[in-house]
Amino acid sequence: MKTIEDLKNIKKATFQRVNQGTNRKTTRIVVGMATCGLAAGAEPVYDAIVDEVNKLGLTNVVVVKTGCIGVCRLEPIVEIIKPGEEKVTYVNMSPYKARRVIASHVLVGAVMKDYTIHVVQGKILNDYKIESD
């Protein structure tokens, strides 16, 4: 059985690894895995992301699951938060799109605007229109 002190240490270590705030050193990839995301295919998207991150040997990337991101009609949703940059939200993801996003955005820094719905400094990067692969 864990003590309260053990749980506090786990919380602190996890917080430092995942929520680094303004001192973030790793790229954080968040996949919406609420009921709506799972029904839309978020699990294969998550698996493709983890596989691609491992295949590319990206050690400075943390992939996490979260609950509802809030735009159910655009699920599966993936958010990428890179150090020193604004969050980019990718929508209507598929395993194929997820692998492309990792290779383009995470690996070389090129946002795939066709897959996004995101506002930067008051401007919409892309007025996303749902399309198939």
UniProtKB/TrEMBL annotation:
SUPFAM superfamilies: Thioredoxin-like (SSF52833). InterPro entries: Thioredoxin-like_sf. It comes from the Bacteria. This is Ferredoxin.
